[in-house]
Design a protein that fits this description.
Cyclophilin, alpha+beta, 8-stranded antiparallel barrel, globular, about 210 residues
Length: about 210
């Protein structure tokens, strides 16, 4: 049987996730540093609590995949008229609508299993349906319990996979959240209408410390 390079990458990625899960009991927090065009954000990741999600995130960092990343969406109380349940976050990653993810999607590590909640400064994995997370992530501004397991921001009630916390640079996060966003068509409001940054914030570097 001939195995292509893509299959090799997927097998290697799966193996690394299994190894991360097997060794997570002894894992220490991992610090990473994101330099953006607006300032530096430092995060602490928790492989002991969310091993699959952290391993996936570090794969993107180690592969320098985030070098083309952006913060491109901000959600404030004044720009989510169409959303019944309100949240406050900034979202970034590789803008998957334009390019395929580098690695396959991962299982959803629910907050009722990890014990990590969507509190102020929490870092979490964006998704659509369960088990669809890849490279897109968000940072919470203020506590957001509707994003935890059982919360109804996503109607399926499964919540999102929190896996880290901002330890420095929340002033940068707040600055990004306050930036100018697009003007939605009031007659055709989509789920994210009015939440796209007019000038996305570029990732300059993203690396382990």
């Amino acid at each position: 049987m001939i195995v292509g390079k893509r299959h090799i990458r997927i097998l290697a990625a799966s193996a690394s996730l299994l190894l991360a899960f097997a060794t997570s009991v002894w894992a220490e927090p991992v610090n990473v540093r994101l330099a953006t065009s607006t300032g530096v954000i430092r995060m602490e990741l928790y492989p002991d609590k969310a091993p699959i999600t952290v391993a996936n995130f570090l794969k993107y960092i180690d592969a320098e995949a985030f070098d083309e990343g952006r913060f491109y969406r901000v959600v404030r109380m004044d720009n989510q008229e169409q959303n019944t349940i309100k949240i406050e976050v900034i979202q970034g990653g590789l803008m998957i609508g334009d390019a395929p993810p580098s690695f396959p999607p991962i299982p959803l590590e629910r907050t009722n299993a990890t014990g990590l909640k969507h509190v102020h400064g929490a870092v979490s994995m964006a998704r659509s349906v369960p088990d669809s997370g890849t490279s897109e992530f968000f940072i919470c501004i203020n506590d957001q319990p509707s994003l935890d397991y059982g919360g109804q921001r996503n109607p399926d009630g499964q919540g999102f996979a929190a896996f880290g916390h901002v330890i420095e640079g929340m002033d940068v996060v707040l600055r990004i959240q306050g930036m100018e966003t697009d003007t939605p068509d009031p007659n055709n409001l989509q789920y994210t209408s009015g939440q796209s940054l007019l000038e996305p914030v570029r990732f300059i570097s993203f690396e382990r410390e």
